[in-house]
Design brief:
mainly alpha, Cytochrome Bc1 Complex, Chain D, domain 2, about 240 residues, 2 domains, single chain
Length: about 240
């Protein structure tokens, strides 16, 4: 037998022994483990939202990333549609949602609506007592002479929102609330016509917006944080189905 044949037979024998060895129980103990796959659940999919909004939608310390948890499903769905279709402008959200279908956005909205993590501690006010008193008055009584209804008339007596599509106002940073009122006022955030929030914010002065935001951010969560049942509104809002 030539040396070449010997080498071929030896190589074949080594391969055969290796294959048989790998087939024995326990032979793969030192083999590389298979790559672990993430669970294909909605909770796993929405982890892309967690960096900004928290794993359960509780919000984060960043002033401009709001709490999503427990808000009415209809409200959350409307906002996802607005970010996808341009009604709200924030490039990371616009990019993230650009190609997601309505049915998937409804699933995301339902997921966060069903989350109920604890609310954060109330913020320490950064304004004086007179400003807080103005904020409380506008939130609870409005300013009828300026066609400004009370925030509580639409967002619920406990300010935890109203079904099916009005958000709660508690657990939010003052800067976020102020920024959203300003966006409604100047039209950079839009809602379905008639855009009631634009109409209301247009009658608010800068001082009013600062006062409302500061007072709301300083309020503790109520014992029952669930959104209120539907009730008649003081003005027509296109985002709220009749």
């Amino acid at each position: 037998m030539s040396h070449r044949i010997v080498r071929v037979v030896s190589a074949f024998a080594a391969a055969l022994v290796g294959a048989l060895t790998l087939s024995l129980p326990g032979a793969r103990l030192h083999a590389a483990p298979p790559a672990e796959r993430a669970p294909d659940t909605l909770q796993a999919r929405v982890m892309g939202c967690a960096a900004c909004h928290g794993a359960h939608g509780e919000g984060t310390d960043n002033d401009y990333f709001p709490r999503l948890a427990g808000k009415p499903e209809g409200y959350l769905y409307n906002q996802l549609i607005a970010f996808r279709d341009g009604g709200r402008s924030y490039p990371p959200m616009n990019y993230l949602l650009a190609y997601l279908p309505d049915a998937y956005l409804k699933q995301i909205a339902a997921f966060f609506a069903q989350q109920h993590p604890p609310y954060p501690a109330p913020a320490t006010p950064r304004v004086d007592a007179a400003m807080l008193a103005l904020g409380k008055s506008l939130v609870t009584n409005g300013a009828p002479e300026r066609k400004v209804p009370a925030c509580a008339a639409c967002h619920g007596a406990s300010l935890t929102g109203m079904q099916p599509a009005i958000p709660g106002l508690l657990g939010l940073h003052a800067d976020y609330i102020s920024a959203q009122l300003g966006a409604f006022r100047y039209g950079t955030r839009r809602a379905a016509s008639p855009d009631c929030m634009h109409d209301i914010a247009s009658h608010l002065a800068e001082r009013d917006i600062t006062a409302i935001a500061a007072w709301l951010a300083a309020q503790p969560a109520p014992a029952d944080p669930m959104p209120a049942a539907p009730a008649p509104l003081p003005l027509a809002c296109g985002s709220v189905p009749h």
